[in-house]
Structure formats: C-alpha cells, structure tokens
From TrEMBL:
It comes from the Bacteria. This is Peptidase M41 domain-containing protein.
C-alpha cells in the first residue's frame, strides 16, 4: 500500500491561491532569466512564461532538441522551487510534474544513454542550484507581488518587457552570453 505525504497548508499570503500562482510564475521567470532567456510575456495561468527560446532550435540536431526540452524542464522545476522557498510548501500534484516526467522520457529517448530518472534528477539539481543563490531567492516575493498586483488590475498577461525591467532592478542586468549560468552549472561536474 502506498503512503501519501500530505502537503502542509500554506499560511499568510500564500494561503491565497492567486498569490501562490504569482509566486509560481515568478519562479518560472527567474529560472528562465538564470538560464539566459528573455521573458516575452507571463500569462497568469499555471504555465511557464513565453520565452524567446520557445520552440526555437539552434541547429537541426537531436542535441538541439534535447537542449530545448531540458531547459523547459529546468524552468518547470523553478515554479515549484520558488513556491517551496516563499510558501514553505509546493502545489502537490501540479501539472508540471507530469510535464517534467514526459519531457525527461523524451530526452532519454533522444539521448539513448541516460534514464529518464537520471535526467530528472540532473535537471532538478540545476534548478535547485539556481535558487541556492540569495539574490534569486530574494527576488521571488517582489516579483510575485508585482505579478499579483497585475492580475488584481485586470492584466492576466503581463508583458515580458515589464517583467524583465523588474528583474533588472532586482538582479541587475542579464548576462550577455545565452546559457552562461547553465553552462557554468553543467560544466561543474
């Protein structure tokens, strides 16, 4: 028989589901930023933001496709990790878990060398490393507050330009080289 772990009930602002969604979306945006991607827009639904990298392959190789899928997994992890940091819990049974599972299986099939589980843990470690940086963690709540205020003002799609401007204030300008942070993380091993 399986034993299921029950998620703690969030307290304070995090008990408001719309605020938790803003935290979650902030996590996706911060992860994308750390990976070197520009946010084009954030739709306040439980989905990652639209990025300049969406469905754009650099080259026509299977490795290029794998890289896009791996980046998407890391970004998906970012929502839950941000929620864990800001709310001390994450949304159990999130659709992102199913998406990550599906994407890691695709990457494993393309790769032919690593298991889906190995890929899952490798990419989760990269996402965890992103949020190990104090500046990233400190940016979660101000970005979530901004996104939540946007929804309260009737804007369910937030311009990437406005999100990027706030992230510039919170984190400084983005690195020039695409994937610079990710490249450093992946080359550590």
């Amino acid at each position: 028989m399986y034993e299921y772990q029950v998620c703690p009930v969030p307290e304070g602002r995090c008990s408001d589901l719309s605020y938790r969604l803003a935290v979650y979306e902030a996590g996706h945006a911060l992860t994308a930023r750390a990976l070197g991607f520009k946010v084009l827009s954030v739709k306040m639904l439980p989905r990652p933001p639209i990025l300049e990298s969406d469905k754009v392959l650099h080259g026509s190789s299977l490795r290029a496709l794998s890289a896009v899928l791996e980046n998407r997994c890391i970004e998906l992890f970012g929502g839950q990790i941000a929620e864990e940091h800001a709310c001390q819990t994450s949304s159990c049974c999130s659709g992102d878990v199913a998406r990550i599972d599906e994407l890691t299986r695709l990457v494993s099939g393309l790769d032919g060398r690593r298991t889906p589980e190995d890929i899952w843990f490798e990419l989760e470690d990269v996402a965890q490393e992103i949020f190990s940086h104090e500046k990233i963690r400190e940016a979660i709540l101000p970005l979530a507050d901004f996104l939540h205020d946007e929804v309260d003002s009737g804007h369910h799609v937030v311009s990437g330009q406005r999100v990027e401007a706030l992230m510039n204030e919170l984190l400084g300008p983005p690195e020039k080289a695409r994937g610079g942070f990710l490249a450093r993380l992946m080359n550590r091993a």
